Amino acid sequence: MKFFSKTFFPGKTRRGALAILLTFLIISVLLVIVLGLSFIFVNELRLSSMVGRTAAAFYAAESGIEHALYQISKGITSGTVSDNLTYSNAEYSASWDATSAQSLGRFGSTRRKVEMHFGSFPPVCGDLKCEDPEETCLTCPGDCGECAPSCGDLSCNGTETCTSCPGDCDSCPLPDEYTKLLIQSHEPADSTIFVDSSQYAHSISKLPGVHHETNEAKFIPSSIFFDGRFGRLIVNDSDDWNFGSGNFTIDAWVNFARVANGNFVTQYTDGSNYFQFLYYSGQLYLEARVSGVNVFSVTPSWTPRRDNWYHIACVRDGSNVKVFVNGIMLEEQTGVSGSVGDFTRPLFIGSDGWGDDFRGYIEELRVSKGVARWTSDFPPPIAPYCSGVCGDGTCDGKETYSSCPSDCPASPPELP
């Protein structure tokens, strides 16, 4: 037996071992290849999934940038915004200012960011920012405010007129058809010439004690002085101040030389039939009385001071009657339905003829029929009303240098 174990089939044993070794090597190589391919395949799957999440996050970030740019296009020059993209479950958060915009997109745990950098935004009229020099009071007054008067800026504003700046003010509007009486003061001192500048040209007479003065004027060159004793302007009765139940407006600039009772405008038949607008014992009175019955009576308290200019106005607007001082409504009477009587007496300016004589100055007295020029608070006029009358200080209407050299300069000034 010992002999047999040493000598029986020795070559076959070696060949079997070699076959086993080769088989192991082949299996090992195949295993390495399979593992390598598996690793590559898994990585590709992971990268493919990452690309999808990255694309979703990037598109979300891009959507945020587009949202920011849309807000900028509307004039919103800074802010933040966030939103969800419901179709992909992605979301973004974006912010922007005057120089850049950023947006961070998120999809799951994947984040991507997009940034844009640019110069300052171009001026946007309406963003409430006056961005000089692109925006000015001329190109965008809503942002930069109204322009200060400047002759040569091609804008007729402030106190500029056709006379003071014809390059800016080509023409002035003449009194409209509602202006039934317009008494202005464009005369030299002590002149007693009084003209109705409305298109109806009513004749105006006077009593002693009223004249033009240049030492006190709301608007250059003069104002009308009433001495408080005999001073009165008289305009004959006319249907132009038969107001009936319609709208009307009476306004003027007044300056008290003495704070005492005084009538501004009145048409007085007797104690039962009259229309009057006056100051009396610390109150303004606007009254109309027919056959002893008040049509309206508006009597606000008012304490004027001497040597101060005030713009006063009374207005009927339908069934509402109002009194204003310097554009502020002092009192209103509502529910007025009656008709102001057709009084046949003359219209008095500065006196009622019964002792309430105004002592002071009046300018730009205007009677308007058929229109309520103001129904709420308003800025008072800042310039005299244009009239088209030679000598009124404005080159308006059909006036030219040839027809009215005192109002119209020979040629407009050169613009800068």
Helix run count: 3
Return the CATH topology of one domain: Jelly Rolls
User: Could you give the count of β-strands?
Assistant: 19
Q: What best-fitting shape do the alpha-carbon axes yield?
A: rod-shaped
- What summary fits the major beta sheet? 8 strands, antiparallel
As a whole number of angstroms, the C-alpha radius of gyration is 45 Å
The CATH class of one domain turns out to be: Mainly Beta
Helix content: 10-25%
Instruction: List SSEs in N-to-C order.
Output: HHEEEEHEEEEEEEEEEEEEEE
Which SSEs are present, and which pair or pack?
Blueprint: H1 2-7, H2 10-73, E1 79-85, E2 90-96, E3 100-107, E4 110-117, H3 141-144, E5 179-183, E6 204-207, E7 210-213, E8 223-227, E9 232-235, E10 248-256, E11 262-270, E12 273-280, E13 283-290, E14 293-298, E15 309-317, E16 320-325, E17 328-333, E18 347-349, E19 359-369
Antiparallel strand pairs: 1-2, 2-3, 3-4, 5-19, 6-9, 7-8, 8-19, 9-18, 10-15, 10-19, 11-12, 11-18, 12-13, 13-14, 15-16, 16-17
Outline of the structure:
By secondary structure, the protein is an alpha+beta fold. Helix content is 18%, strand content 31%.
Task: Tell me what you see in this structure.
This protein is of the alpha+beta class and 416 residues long. The protein has a domain at 179-369: Sandwich (Jelly Rolls). 18% of the residues lie in helices and 31% in strands. Strand 15 (309-317) and strand 16 (320-325) form a beta hairpin. The protein is rod-shaped.
